[in-house]
Amino acid sequence: MMRADLTKHLACTGIDNIAEAITLLELNNWDLVAAINGVIPQENGILQSAVPPPSSSSSSSSPPSSSASAFCPITPSSRHIVERQPRLLNFRVEYRQRSVELVLEEGNTVGEIKQILETELGVPVSKMQLKGWKSGDVSDSTVLRSLHLPKNNSLYVLTPDIAPTSRVCVCASCRYGETHPMFFIGSLEAASQEAFHGKARDRKLLAIYLHNDDSVLSNVFCSQMMCADSIVSYLSQNFITWAWDVTKEANKSRLLTMCTRHFGSVVTQTIRTYKTDQFPLLLIVMGKRTSNEVLNVIQGNTTVDELMMRLMGAMEIFTAQQQEDIKDEDEREAREMVKREQDEAYRLSLEADRKKREAQEREEAEQFRLEQMRKEQEEEKEAIRLSLEQALPPEPDEESGEQISKLRIRTPSGEFLERRFLGSCKLQVLFDFVASKGYPFEEFKLLTTFPRRNITQLDPGSTLLEAKLFPQETLFLEAKE
């Protein structure tokens, strides 16, 4: 059955990739009609039946056609192979008090998003940092498809090199004096990133100030609470403070959408319950491992002392949690450090073993080379020795009647070589005889005992008689220096 469905799916959709067809069928629980509708749009929007109704003119005994047209209705939209549409991704990009909605194909790049934002926001691409990617920072050449993004995405733009046009606080500090909190310039998501992410020691609480000009409490709260030196100093040291004006209903709706996305529906419902005359509100939010938690909602009808007490209370809770996070982070970093040190020690050990092994292999190779050279030299010497030995004239008989010289040669080991030579023999024959016994002319010299003479310095062409080595002489061999 599955094989038949696969065959029909390939025939109707024009998809020639079997793996892709199987994937589409699996996504639709092998519902063939749903799988085909997902690829080929019909004229009426829905493929009504996987099997066409029987024709009134056809015989009941006629077998069903095995062609694709017997399975798929022939409509203008299915007479040709329909190309699959590329997947579209939705992006909501926030920059300071602005928000831009984008729809792009997953084949686009991050750089192309920045180019669109440059037109929409008036911010040069070179000064733009696009944040909020789940996989961390990405390059401009990164293709969106490679990030495996969901259908809907939220990003924010940072421009640290571009000063904001105004750093006046949202509670109209220009009316209440120059002492006021410095609000975070950027989206709520960017403020959350700044407060909650990073190392545990660097995290802070997030204070969200919600202003409403229509509340009678706004004037007092801004001038007496938010502009008090103690409050301003405490917020600056311990909080990331972000502000939003909810005077207009559209702004309030946007805020509720952002809060739902970042903090959940409970926070959104909590804000909804407050009436206009209860504003301004100051929400104290703490980032946790799994979710963000609103520690306190401070209404506009408060005093400086009460506001400070509630800020300090939230700070006490945050500090306790932060100490736990720091401890966990330190322990995790210590474990990672130990692992890195162990990995490095193991790597160094492997490297040392490798170098030792390579040195040993080099030494063995050198020893083998030297041994081969030594063998070759010995073989060469042996070949020369044998050649000389074979070339020597025969030893003359004592009764041959010719002048014969009897020579006795003492070797460095103390042994004696004895042989008879014709007196007319050249000294070269004597030298060859000594070399044939393993004492080559190049390495040894032949000396007489008394008077001491170096025979090897004489002309090899002279005879034994001429060298006065007749009728007998005792010589000795000595290694040349």
UniProtKB/TrEMBL annotation:
<dbReference type="GO" id="GO:0043130">
    <property type="term" value="F:ubiquitin binding"/>
</dbReference>
<feature type="domain" description="UBX">
    <location>
        <begin position="400"/>
        <end position="477"/>
    </location>
</feature>
<dbReference type="Pfam" id="PF21021">
    <property type="entry name" value="FAF1"/>
</dbReference>
<protein>
    <submittedName>
        <fullName>Fas (TNFRSF6) associated factor 1</fullName>
    </submittedName>
</protein>
<dbReference type="GO" id="GO:0005634">
    <property type="term" value="C:nucleus"/>
</dbReference>
<feature type="compositionally biased region" description="Basic and acidic residues">
    <location>
        <begin position="372"/>
        <end position="384"/>
    </location>
</feature>
<dbReference type="GO" id="GO:0051059">
    <property type="term" value="F:NF-kappaB binding"/>
</dbReference>
<dbReference type="Pfam" id="PF14555">
    <property type="entry name" value="UBA_4"/>
</dbReference>
<feature type="compositionally biased region" description="Low complexity">
    <location>
        <begin position="56"/>
        <end position="70"/>
    </location>
</feature>
<dbReference type="InterPro" id="IPR033043">
    <property type="entry name" value="FAF1-like_UBX"/>
</dbReference>
<dbReference type="Pfam" id="PF00789">
    <property type="entry name" value="UBX"/>
</dbReference>
<dbReference type="GO" id="GO:0036503">
    <property type="term" value="P:ERAD pathway"/>
</dbReference>
<feature type="region of interest" description="Disordered">
    <location>
        <begin position="49"/>
        <end position="72"/>
    </location>
</feature>
<dbReference type="GO" id="GO:0005783">
    <property type="term" value="C:endoplasmic reticulum"/>
</dbReference>
<dbReference type="InterPro" id="IPR050730">
    <property type="entry name" value="UBX_domain-protein"/>
</dbReference>
<dbReference type="InterPro" id="IPR000626">
    <property type="entry name" value="Ubiquitin-like_dom"/>
</dbReference>
<feature type="region of interest" description="Disordered">
    <location>
        <begin position="372"/>
        <end position="406"/>
    </location>
</feature>
<dbReference type="InterPro" id="IPR036249">
    <property type="entry name" value="Thioredoxin-like_sf"/>
</dbReference>
<dbReference type="InterPro" id="IPR006577">
    <property type="entry name" value="UAS"/>
</dbReference>
<dbReference type="InterPro" id="IPR049483">
    <property type="entry name" value="FAF1_2-like_UAS"/>
</dbReference>
<dbReference type="InterPro" id="IPR029071">
    <property type="entry name" value="Ubiquitin-like_domsf"/>
</dbReference>
<dbReference type="InterPro" id="IPR044541">
    <property type="entry name" value="FAF1_UBA"/>
</dbReference>
<dbReference type="InterPro" id="IPR001012">
    <property type="entry name" value="UBX_dom"/>
</dbReference>
<feature type="domain" description="Ubiquitin-like">
    <location>
        <begin position="89"/>
        <end position="158"/>
    </location>
</feature>
